[in-house]
Design a protein that fits this description.
Blueprint lengths: L1 H16 L23 E4 L5 E4 L3 H7 L6 E3 H8 L5 H10 L6 E3 H13 L7 H9 L28 H39 L24 H19 L24 H32 L3 H13 L7
Helix pairs in contact: 1-9, 7-9
Length: 322
């Protein structure tokens, strides 16, 4: 019981710190931009007084008048009534990392972090910790990168440049999505397969010990080869589609699939949150299915039995299985 709970806790902590990728395409090879703590925007007040406006996600939506997902200098000045002075231009230039002439939400998020944590953190406390801990080399493409989920974890220096980083992020998202499906499908299959097999008189396709088929558990010989052929064909088609055109016009992992318009119909701050949730949940799911596989291999029991030992004390008040 204690061993299982400890492994789950370690898995969650590992997922939070893991992975070098992220969904934004923009970065800068220049050193961190120096910006004063609290890059507030000055607004006209009554008479000759001014007031400071705190940067918030809602403010970004307010400033983005044309709803194109970015704010430019004129939108900033007109929508917020900001005084047209050198301070405004300086703050805008610091935020516009790619020099595109506008600020997208990832750049704005960095600006909010600078305001919250101070310039010495460079807009990303996790990256600063990684640099101080030796988990990231100074000068890495991750050092000052406005990427969703950027934790600065790249001790081996695999991310050589932005193009390579985009490839890693695309791979991470694909594996994370599959892992999220598997994290649910693994225990569900172990629960439903024996029931369905008995109900319809079909063969039990689980590996020995009622465990899900895997490289460690075995059991692949019980599955129809046509399933694997179909899976490979589908995967090849998705890969072929995804590799066309590179990342010039899309973010890594963005296949344009949103039939309910949940993502594309949202504001930029909500989109940013969705991307961050997908990255974090995908990382946790990859750790989870790895845990499933090795736990079943070394203990000889399936995931349902192991989870029963974990949750039984909370349900029955007694240690053991459900």
């Amino acid at each position: 019981m204690f061993r299982t709970s400890l492994l789950i806790a370690c898995a969650a902590a590992t997922a939070e710190a893991f992975a070098p990728g992220a969904a934004s395409l923009r970065t800068s090879a220049a050193p961190r931009a120096a910006i004063a703590r609290g890059p507030m925007m000055q607004q006209k007040g009554a008479g000759t007084t001014t007031k400071l406006t705190k940067l918030t996600p809602a403010l970004f939506t307010q400033l983005d008048k044309d709803r194109n997902g970015t704010i430019d200098l004129e939108e900033l000045r007109q929508a917020a009534g900001v005084l047209a002075d050198s301070d405004l231009a300086r703050v805008f230039a610091k935020a516009d990392k790619d020099g595109s002439g506008d600020i997208d939400y990832a750049e704005y998020e960095r600006l909010m972090n600078l305001e919250r944590f101070g310039d010495e953190q460079g807009g990303n406390t996790a990256v600063r910790f990684a640099l101080d801990s030796g988990l990231l080399k100074a000068g890495s493409v991750l050092e000052d990168n406005i990427m969703v989920g950027n934790k600065g974890f790249d001790p081996a220096g695999f991310a050589k440049d932005q193009d390579k980083l985009n490839e890693y992020r695309e791979a991470e998202l694909k594996h994370g999505r599959l892992a999220m499906l598997a994290a649910v499908g693994w225990p569900v299959s172990e629960y439903l397969q024996p029931i369905l097999a008995k109900q319809y008189g079909a063969p039990d396709l689980l590996a020995a010990g009622e465990k899900a088929p895997s490289l460690l558990n075995g059991g692949f010989d019980r599955i129809n080869p046509l399933f694997f052929i179909g899976t490979l064909a589908f995967t090849a088609a998705v890969e072929n589609f995804g590799l066309k055109g590179g990342f010039a016009d899309r973010e890594p992992g963005d296949l344009g699939f949103d039939p309910l318009n949940l993502y594309y119909g949202s504001t930029e701050d909500v989109k940013y949150g969705y991307r961050l949730k997908e990255v974090n949940n995908g990382r946790l799911a990859m750790v989870a299915i790895t845990y499933y596989a090795f736990t079943e291999f070394f203990t000889g029991t399936n995931t349902l039995e192991e989870s029963g030992k974990v949750f039984a004390p909370f349900i029955t008040g007694q240690p053991g299985s459900l």
